[in-house]
Design the sequence.
């Protein structure tokens, strides 16, 4: 899926963003025009967006079994592997 957007959507499973949490919240809530990043306001509550930001920022510290499930979900059948 990542190759279908222009510019390509970042694959957070491969690289944890070093952006400030507040910026990731804003981008998630409001989206980014002319990219594949939609706005999630009205779909997710602010609390849910903060939880998503926290998950992404700490996804490199997941227990091994959870990390494996996260990686498996990111490369679901029919999706190109990003490795």
Sequence:
């Amino acid at each position: 899926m990542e190759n279908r957007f222009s510019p390509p959507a970042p694959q957070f499973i491969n690289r944890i963003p070093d952006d400030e949490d507040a910026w990731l919240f804003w981008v998630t809530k409001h989206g980014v025009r002319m990219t594949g990043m939609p706005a999630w306001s009205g779909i997710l509550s602010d609390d849910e967006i903060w939880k998503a930001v926290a998950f992404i920022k700490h996804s490199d510290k997941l227990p091994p079994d959870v990390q494996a499930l996260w990686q498996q979900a990111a490369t679901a059948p029919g999706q190109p592997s990003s490795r």
